[in-house]
Amino acid sequence: MISYQSFEAWWWPYVFIAIAGWLATDIWRWLGVLIGNRLKQDSAALTWVRSVATALLAAVIAKLVLYPVGELQNVPVSVRLVAVAAGFAAFLISGKRIWVGIAVALGLLAGGQFLTGALIDAG
Fold it and tell me: Which residues cross the membrane (predicted)?
């Protein structure tokens, strides 16, 4: 049986992760495409799938904003919340252009991190 420790080559973990990741996700994607093509856009099943996907995305964003890991922990919660709110507002104002919302939120987040870091260094 092939396992993570089967080979000693430096590249083996990358191949193992790529294959395992592909097998775990691609099958479900193809099944979704095959089944999804047969559903009507306003069907109850597709509405439920969209609702679950939206809820999962909202949960991931909330976790990143409220309970961050890594460098994002150094950014104050107020800066993170303002960046998310401004990004969402920019998204709506721009006619629901995702890249505008992301650019605004990212710019405010980076600027806020830079300013809070500069204030901490000066103080």
Answer: 12-36, 48-69, 75-93, 98-120
